[in-house]
Each structure stands twice: as C-alpha cells, then as structure tokens.
Design a protein that fits this description.
10 strands, alpha+beta, elongated, Pnp Oxidase, Chain A
C-alpha cells in the first residue's frame, strides 16, 4: 500500500491522462454546502495538485464561491472509467495567494480571460445576447493589452484531510483504501466495499 496518497493520486492521474480521459483526467466533481448545510455539486477542473492540496479556479461571487465563503469545507470526486477507479478527497478550503492566481490567469486563453470579466457567474441572465454584448465590450476595452485577473476571480486550495481510493473488482468486492491526515503524516487502512 502506498504511504503517500498524493503520490498515489498523481500516478493515477497520469494513467488517466494517458488513457485519454476527458479533460486529460482533471475533471472533478466539487461538492460544497451553504451556511445552512444544503449541498450542491458541479464539475470543475483540477489545475494543480501538490503536497499542500488540490487547486481549482472560479468566480468568488459564484454560487460555489459564496458557499465556500460561508462554509469553507468541500469534497472532490474524480472518476476515471477506463481505470475503474474513483478518488474522493475531503478537507478545508482556502483561497490561493493573489500572486498564484495572477500567474495562472496569465496562462489562460485570451477568450477565457475576457469571459471571466464578462460573466456574472451564477447570476440570472436575461438573454444570451446580453452575455455576448458584455464579452464584446470587454474585448474592445482591452484590445491590444494584457488582461489582468479580475479581483472577483481566483483560486481555491482544498487541503486534504481524507483521501479515499476506490478500485472496482469483480463481484463488487471493490478495494477501498482510505488515508487520513494525522499530524504531519498520513494513516491508512481498508474499508469494506
């Protein structure tokens, strides 16, 4: 059994990418809860995984951003059908530093940068025409210039406290290996399927 769940995750992610999984294996379900404890889930993309956690980006004023502001805990689920593997990650969430968010934003395609400025993510949209109009206004305003990261947009890092690897087996006798953060390391063990 692998002692380091982050190393184990990275190895599986690389296998998923080589197997041609959608979005190169980085698509993940993000579950958050409102201050009242009402859960919601959606697909987002993993942008960084390292020893400090799992990073994704969004609009801070979106539904998920508001929920994370009120209840800074979340869960992630990765599922790679070609590998018959699922990975579940749980832990507290905090915003990444502005310098890290700025560096990532600078790597995004220009259209995506403009889209971040144009979208009032999760707010009611009267018509698609309005969204396109906002996008074209941003495009004209920023013509020929670098596009800075919007102050309402950035990243979150989920610091894992629990990571579970689920591997499909015949007869539904699946392998479930759970890691729990303890002090400066990890404990691990098996769960019944």
């Amino acid at each position: 059994m692998h002692e380091d769940p982050i190393a184990r995750f990275r190895a599986l992610l690389e296998r998923a990418r080589k197997a041609g999984e959608a979005q190169r294996g980085t698509a993940m379900m993000l579950a958050t809860c409102s201050a009242e404890g009402r859960p919601t889930a959606r697909m987002v993309l993993l942008k960084v995984v390292d020893d400090s956690g799992f990073v994704f980006y969004t609009n801070f004023e979106s539904r998920k951003g508001v929920q994370l502001g009120a209840n800074p805990h979340a869960a992630l689920t990765f599922y790679w059908p070609s590998l018959n593997v699922q990975v579940r990650v749980e832990g507290p969430v905090a915003r990444v530093e502005d310098t890290e968010a700025d560096a990532y934003f600078a790597t995004r395609e220009r259209q995506s940068q403009l889209g971040a400025w144009a979208s009032k993510q999760s707010e009611p949209l009267p018509s698609r025409r309005e969204l396109i109009g906002r996008y074209l206004q941003e495009k004209a305003k920023r013509l020929g210039r670098p596009i800075p990261r919007p102050p309402f947009w950035g990243g979150y890092r989920l610091a894992p406290e629990r990571i579970e690897f689920w591997i499909s087996r015949l007869g539904r006798l699946h392998d479930r290996i759970v890691y729990r953060r303890q002090d400066d390391g990890w404990t691990h063990g098996l769960l019944y399927p």
